[in-house]
Amino acid sequence: MKKLFFITVMLIGIFYSCSKDEFTESKSENKIDYFTLNKSVDKQISTLRTLTVNSNVEENYLKYFKTKPKSLNANKSTQHETTIKITLAPHYNQEESQFMLSFYQDLANCYDNKIIELLNSKRISVNNSNFSLDFKNEANFIFSTIEKTTNEIGAILNKSQTSKTGKAAGFGDCFATKGKGIGRAVATGALVGAAGGAMVGAAGGTVALPGIGTASGAIGGAVFGAAKGAVSGGLVELTWAFIDCAMERSTLEAEYIYFDDFYIEIIAPNDPDQFNFYIFENSDNLINTVLNTSDETLIRFIE
After folding, report:
1. Is 6 exposed, middle or buried (0-12, 13-18, 19+ CB in 10 A)?
2. Which of 69, 178, 197, 252 has the most CB atoms within 10 Å of its CB?
């Protein structure tokens, strides 16, 4: 009987030891090197400065847009609220999902010159919360990426205004207009990137993600995808603003961007990491619905 008891205790000890080792190994695999990821994101943001935006390249970008005649009734009434169904990254628990849902909704409804203020408020909220350290690190990484992207896009838009000359004066003023375009483009880019990156990461362990190493599953893909998507969203807004203003000379206006084509031909080739996240079948619809919603209309995200 004693022998049987000893064997049972030994087996329990072995099982517990193995389980603990596996748990520790699993946890260590999900540790993300945010220092390296930040360097990757900074490289991506720096490519925004190389984007040429002048009348000579209008046709290069116009092919990604669907256009329509300018509305004859500029004072038409707008909706009070637009509800849009989105897909959040799958690794969040209920409380984390609610926080990120609220954040992206606030970002989509935030005027461009108030984004930094919003980010600072969200930082304080998440850092003073009872969220896990992993979630706090992830949220702060996304906040930082959005802040740097916002500052870069804002600098480009403002530079277009101060460097305007001659007949381009109207274009410069238009291009520097402050609305809700940056927040909305960055929010949708991050949403598409996070959900798509999670799918890529979950599809197999061979996905190469800088700074994530073995955590190339759904969590790593979602974190990196959200950051890359946010920067890509900034590029979409910059291009849309350029096309919109360039076309003020004509009787047309841009109403739709073919994001899938734009991503493949413009964003991916300028990505230093060549990170291709999954493009949803409704990515175009999500991005265009958000960016085509008037500033006066409240955007409400639901899962």
Report:
1. exposed
2. 197
Of 197, 238, 236, 232, the C-alpha closest to 218 is: 197
How many Cβ atoms sit within 10 Å of the Cβ of residue 52?
9
Pick from 298, 272, 275, 255: nearest CA to 39: 272
Q: Check residue 302 and give its pLDDT.
A: 93
User: Which tokens in the block code for residue 181?
Assistant: 């375009």
Q: What is the pLDDT of residues 120-159, one digit of tens each?
A: 999 999 999 999 999 999 999 999 999 999 999 888 877 7
Closest CA to 192 of 67, 61, 63, 291: 291
Q: Give the Cα separation of 227 and 183 in Å (integer).
A: 14
pTM as predicted: 0.82
Identify each DSSP E strand in the chain by its residue range: 65-69, 81-85, 252-257, 298-302
